[in-house]
Task: inverse folding
């Protein structure tokens, strides 16, 4: 590494430190307090299972939940590559998730939002290969949506995460719904 590159690296790191940059999950941050504190609604189908699994990987298992995370999933599939013989060879999947976080001690919604994403798969192989590609595309989409939800919760935690500190455990109220599924 040249001397100029080293100086640039050191100045860049100093600038980041000077602007207050810190990791979202650093000890003492509001986002860190969410780890193990959010009970994710129980899944009802494969897509919601994949979403809930990734949310629990990101947020940790709810050992002493102070919040409940509800979500509604919606997916749609469209053929995007059609041959001259009218065979669809590629599919595009769009997914949307509306979510809300409830304070278990008061039952009030403390955060909510909507995330969306897309994935795609090819249908040019055998039936088994196409089905496997489809299932994998849906799983990738659910991971994408869960990661977006986690990012949104981490980014906004400072404005709402302290409101239920010290409250007891509760259960997830409500249900999980999905439209236009698998």
Result:
């Amino acid at each position: 590494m040249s001397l100029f590159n080293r100086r640039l690296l050191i100045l860049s790191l100093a600038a980041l430190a000077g602007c207050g940059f810190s990791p979202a999950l650093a000890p003492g941050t509001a986002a860190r307090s969410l780890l193990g504190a959010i009970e994710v609604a129980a899944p009802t189908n494969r897509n919601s299972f994949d979403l809930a699994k990734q949310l629990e990987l990101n947020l940790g298992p709810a050992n002493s939940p102070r919040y409940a995370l509800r979500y509604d999933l919606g997916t749609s599939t469209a053929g995007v590559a059609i041959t001259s013989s009218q065979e669809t060879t590629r599919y595009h999947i769009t997914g949307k998730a509306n979510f809300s976080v409830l304070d278990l001690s008061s039952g009030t919604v403390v955060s909510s939002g909507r995330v969306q994403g897309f994935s795609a798969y090819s249908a040019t192989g055998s039936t088994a290969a196409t089905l496997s590609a489809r299932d994998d595309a849906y799983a990738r989409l659910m991971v994408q949506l869960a990661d977006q939800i986690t990012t949104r919760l981490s980014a906004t935690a400072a404005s709402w995460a302290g409101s239920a500190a010290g409250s007891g455990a509760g259960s997830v109220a409500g249900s999980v719904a999905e439209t236009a599924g698998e």
In short: Helices lie at 3-18, 46-59, 127-160.
